[in-house]
Amino acid sequence: MSRRRALPTLPPPFPAPFLTTLHSLLAQPVLVGGTSDQRLRARRAVLSQSGTFVGHRPYVRGDDLRRIDWAAYARTGEMFVKQLEQEERRTAALLLDLSPSLLAGAPPRRLAMLRAAAILGGLALTHLDGLTVLAPGAGDLAVRPFVGVHALAALLTHLEALPVVEVASSDAIALVLKRSVPGRVHWLSDFAVPKDIERPLQALRRRGVLVHGWLPELASDHHVAANGYVRVADPETGEELVVPMDDRFRAELERQLAMLATQQNRLFAQAGAPLVRWPVPAVDDWRLQSYWLIVAGCVA
Amino acid sequence: MTFLAPAHAFWLLVLPVLYWLSLPSRPRTQTWTPHLAQWQLALSALRWRPPRLARWRFLLLALAAIAAVLAFAQPVLVATSGPTRLVVVLDASASMAAVDAAGISAWSRAIALLQRTFANVPPHVDVTLLRAGGPMVRRHGASARALQDLGEPSGELAIDLSALATAIENDAQTAVWTLSDGQGSASLPTAGGLTVLDGSGSNGAVLAARLQDRWPLPGFSLVVEVVAFADSQITGELRIEGAASDTRAVELPHGVVRNETFELTRAAAGGPLRVELVVAGDHLAADNTWSVWLPPLPAPRIAVLVDGEAGPFADAAANALAKEVHGTVVAAAAGSEASLLLVDGGQAALGAGRVRALTFGAALAGGVAPTLWRSPTVADWDRLSPLTMGLDLSELRIQQAWRSLLPSGEAFLWADDGAGREPLAVVVGAGDVASVHFAFRLQDSNLPLLPAFPQLLRRAFVRSYGAGAAPVVQSRPVAAGEQNLLAAARASDRALPTFGGEARDLSPWFLVVGLCALALRAFVR
Q1: Cβ–Cβ < 8 Å for B314, B360
Q2: Burial bucket for residue B71 (CB in 10 Å: 0-12, 13-18, 19+)
Q3: Which residue of chain A comes nearest to B27, CA vs CA?
Q4: How does DSSP assign B189-253, residue by residue?
Q5: Is residue A296 over pLDDT 60?
Q6: FRET label pair with A64: which of A6, A128, A192, B122, CA 20 to 30 Å apart?
Q7: CA max distance for chain B
Q8: Are residues B253 and B236 in the same domain?
């Protein structure tokens, strides 16, 4: 029996205590440590010869002599430096899942997703050159670039204004591929249907897009505490199910949830993409260590 | 469709209880989940099916309950309209015994017609038969169809057939059928079916007879009332047979009651006496006779037992009584037989009411010691007792009597000395033996000198025989108004209406529906 019920509403995602915690996280010295930055620069230097050629520019003093296009110099007598794609990758992208399924849970998974997006976006604005927020299905708000630390407030406003829309994973990835988003793509979702993310992950891998999966994890993703007759509903389809809950069914359901988690991990591993499961803190939990895993996962 | 027991639909109030019981057990948790597929996979792994049709399960249960309640209310379906009950009013008055020219009585024709009709009445029709005439008899169902124990026509028609038929047919489901000869009714019913059984013809009847018996003397008087209803004056013959015999021809004008008086002498042995009116062409013979049983004449042997102090009154009284009843006076000796023992004073070893005796101031066996009662004043006597009715005892004077001398019995003579009435004489006994006791001796009163004394002695003799001295009329009283067979009401016969179809009981079908609903519910989850 399918019957659409009123979807749950979200509390304000970014109250003042969270902003305090957010600014504390972005101000942590460990996040901006030289190790990570220098490693990125060294990696960029090593991989500079293997980047994708995108054009020439005139040589200026200080340019790496290995990037001079000697063939062009022989033809023209002027020195040009080969400009590679690697230089554009100092940005990051947030791919947000706006589907109603993230409204489920206590606290709602969407709330945790928005806060995680705020932290990831803040890190990108602080330590990278720019940030692109991709929200498939959000209409005019689907693609929005942000540059500089001063854009943090605009980022939070943008995140809070994102609607709840139903969009397929394939459509979301199509938007990524169409925009040729440089840098790492942080995909925040519940990945509730593994078969819907398998093909998009493989497509992104073929296109060389680095994907980082973020899964705000709820306690109900592993354990079921309800007793008696339980009426469960899918926020996306409205489909309902009434089940008499007992120990036997609870054990079987937890086994199925464990299989789902294993399947999600396997798909991301096959795609060479990390999947970070972030235990969602309580709504009023503003401690730093509750959000530290996001920062640690981003650095890793 | 209708219900024979609609009050049982009250049980439909159990439906809210069923609904409440069908609700799933608490607690019921409602939650959102993105993992509905995992819930479904868990159900499949356990081979469970979710109760998706809980509403249907309740609806089927409610349907079963409703069907059961309606079946309990006895639903019936009337196939066709029309009466389903037949009430037959059968005139069984005495005139129904009148015969026609073929010698067949109207009663016999009515019985034959009922047998033929009942054979064609559908089995589902509820038949009730009322016998009107004489004692009302009601037969119902199979007993009515079998015409069980209806007896013979007798008595008078004490009810209004027309009003009865109209009252019965007020019920639309009931048809009434009246069978009557029309005699004794001002009009015949206009409602329902009607069959008139013609029994008209001439009839002579003995309306009543009055017997004046002079027992223990053999003579008696008999007055017979006769009447005849015919087209013209007829001559009948009045025959008396049995304990006495006589025959007399009587002229009987139409509808004129004649009184014929007979002075007869019975045989000493008594026995039945039959009076019969013989009229040529009589259609109703049942009212032509009157019969009575006459008691046998006694052999009055009067024994006298007198105290030594008694005077000659006892012997004189015995002789006077013997003369009155044509009897003899015998000695009161051991072994002698006597039909009446007359005792005057002293003590008598006899039981009150067990011996035909007449005692005056005599103490009976087993009685208490009497006390002398001087000059009691006679206050009154029973004016309705057969012993003293019509006698004048106002001159009775008693010099002395005895208290506590009399046994318990029916007093008919009292004294009153200012302290209330006390009996001076009683009669004891029932049936064929009785004894009469006085509390004073003949010599202590002027009773033997009263003119009423011989008559009192004779009555005491008759009373000592009790019911054995009374004639017994064996004929039933003639039914009033049942003799004139020429004055019967007439009307055309009317056939019975068409009966309604059999009401079909729908209870089994409702039960089947309920069971099907329960069976289907077992497959619905």
Answers
A1: yes
A2: buried
A3: A228
A4: --SSEEEE----S-EEEEEEEEEEE-TTSSEEEEEEEEEEESSS-EEEEEEEEESS-EEEEEEE-
A5: yes
A6: A128
A7: 140
A8: yes
Amino acid at B204: G
**Cβ atoms of A229 and A244 closer than 8 Å:** yes
For residue B369, the model assigns a pLDDT of: 83
- The answer to whether B50 contacts A243, with C-beta atoms less than 8 Å apart, is yes
CB B348 within 8 A of CB B431: no
CB A103 within 8 A of CB B32: yes
Question: CB of B451 within 8 Å of any CB in chain A?
Answer: no
Pairing of strands B371-374, B137-140: unpaired
pLDDT computed for residue B19 by the predictor: 83
Q: What gap in Å lies between CA B502 and CA B505, rounded to an integer?
A: 9
| The pLDDT value given to residue B261 | 94
> Is A89-299 CATH 3.40.50?
yes
Nearest Cα to Cα of residue A260 among B48, B40, B46, B37: B37
Residue intervals of chain A classified under CATH 3.40.50 are 89-299
Closest chain A C-alpha to B60 CA, distance in angstroms? 19
> Are residues B230 and B278 located together in one domain of the fold?
yes
Q: How many domains does chain B have?
A: 4
Record the tokens describing residue A150, joined without a space: 């001063």
Residue of B22, B25, B33 to mutate for A, most A C-beta atoms under 10 A: B33
Mean pLDDT throughout B502-512? 87
Q: Are the C-beta atoms of residues A190 and A97 closer than 8 Å to each other?
A: yes
Nearest-neighbour CA in chain B from A237: distance (Å): 10
- Does the bond joining B50 to the residue before it have cis omega, within 30 degrees of 0? no
Name which of B26, B34, B50 is nearest A228 (Cβ-Cβ): B26
**Which structural domain, as residue segments, surrounds residue B56?**
2-24+37-79+505-522
Q: Extract the tokens encoding B124.
A: 């589902």
The minimum CA-CA distance between A256 and chain B, rounded to whole Å, is 6
- The owner of tokens 């990524």 is A176
- CA B12 to chain A, closest CA, distance in angstroms equals 29
Measured CA to CA in angstroms, residue B119 lies from B9, B82, B128 at distances of: 38, 19, 15
Query: pLDDT tens, B127-148?
Result: 999 998 888 899 999 999 999 9
**Pair (B167, B59) in one structural domain:** no
Tokens of B522: 């077992």
Tell if the CB–CB gap between B34 and A8 is shorter than 8 Å. Answer: no
Q: ipTM score of the complex?
A: 0.80
